[in-house]
Write a structure and sequence with these properties.
By secondary structure, the protein is an alpha+beta fold. It has two domains: about 180 residues, no CATH class; about 80 residues, 2-Layer Sandwich (Alpha-Beta Plaits), CATH 3.30.70. It is elongated. The two termini are about 20 Å apart. The protein has a four-stranded antiparallel beta sheet. The relative contact order is 0.17.
Length: about 290
């Protein structure tokens, strides 16, 4: 049966190539948006598990004044943790982050860096209240409000998901109609052969099966090629993105996760190819 399918595919190579290309494009898009969704979720998780409110103090502040503010925040019962970072600790963090750039290390001393506290709220919606409290304090120089970052990332992820679903839906429909048309043309070209098979007693499923297998082959090859191109691009850009996102560990994606994506795509692609072929068979082999 498989030899028969490949023989008929070789007889019309341009149609086969067209089917492979559209399926490859479809599942390349699926792979890209799957990877983007996973990375976006990881990025959101990273910021949600980090101090959501960072409060930088003026140089003249004393440790007691900072302690009074910490107590004030804890009394709201909206804080899960507060971590004090002194000037010296801030310098150590700065040196660790820039250890590969000695020029930057020479330019900064502990006196230049401000002391700070890192505040984790019990719930994200409580950040507005906590930010209002610290901003009213005269000892506070600046407040970094990470809730804005998380909200922005969530909105980006939502937009990426909607765009991805739209593009994938359109490409899937195009793939469906392309394969339906190709299989329909092949059925028309083989009409005499099919009539002979019917006359010698071949069952409907025996006649239909090669077309269904052909559609599944288009889907399988397209999914593997689309996934492979996406993974190749991902491996190429990962070092650059890791350098850009210093300290934010969202890479690498595990091989097991990538293989799970491939398995899901292969299943979906084979199903899509089979359904397209099945509709073509129903239409032309009544």
């Amino acid at each position: 049966m498989f030899k028969t399918v490949t023989k008929y595919m070789r007889r019309s190579p341009y149609q086969a190539i067209s089917a492979f290309l559209i399926m490859t494009l479809t599942f390349f898009a699926v792979s890209i948006f799957a990877v983007l969704t996973i990375l976006s979720v990881r990025l959101i998780d990273y910021f949600e598990t980090r101090p959501q409110l960072t409060v930088f103090f003026k140089d003249t502040v004393s440790r007691q004044e900072v302690q009074d503010l910490e107590d004030k925040l804890k009394n709201t019962n909206e804080v899960s943790s507060i971590v004090y970072v002194s000037k010296e600790e801030a310098l150590q963090i700065y040196r660790e982050q820039n250890k590969k750039d000695p020029i930057l290390l020479d330019l900064v001393t502990a006196d230049v860096l401000p002391a700070s506290i890192e505040v984790q709220a019990t719930k994200a919606e409580k950040l507005d209240d906590l930010a209002g409290i610290v901003k009213s304090e005269s000892i506070v120089e600046e407040v970094v409000f990470q809730k804005d970052i998380v909200d922005t990332l969530i909105s980006w992820t939502s937009a990426i998901r909607k765009i991805g679903i739209t593009i994938i839906s359109v490409l899937s429909l195009v793939s469906l109609f392309v394969i339906l048309t190709i299989i329909g043309i092949k059925i028309t070209l083989r009409r005499e052969e099919i009539e002979i098979m019917r006359l010698i007693g071949a069952s409907n499923w025996f006649i239909r099966m090669p077309f269904l297998i052909e559609g599944m082959i288009y889907g399988f090859v397209g999914a593997v090629l689309g996934w492979s191109i996406c993974v190749a691009i991902l491996l190429y850009v990962t070092p650059t993105l890791e350098s850009f996102l210093k300290g934010i560990s969202i890479f690498p994606l595990s091989p097991l996760m990538l293989l799970e994506i491939l398995a899901l795509e292969v299943f979906a692609a084979c199903f899509l190819g089979m359904i397209a072929s099945y509709f073509a068979v129903l239409r032309y082999l009544k």
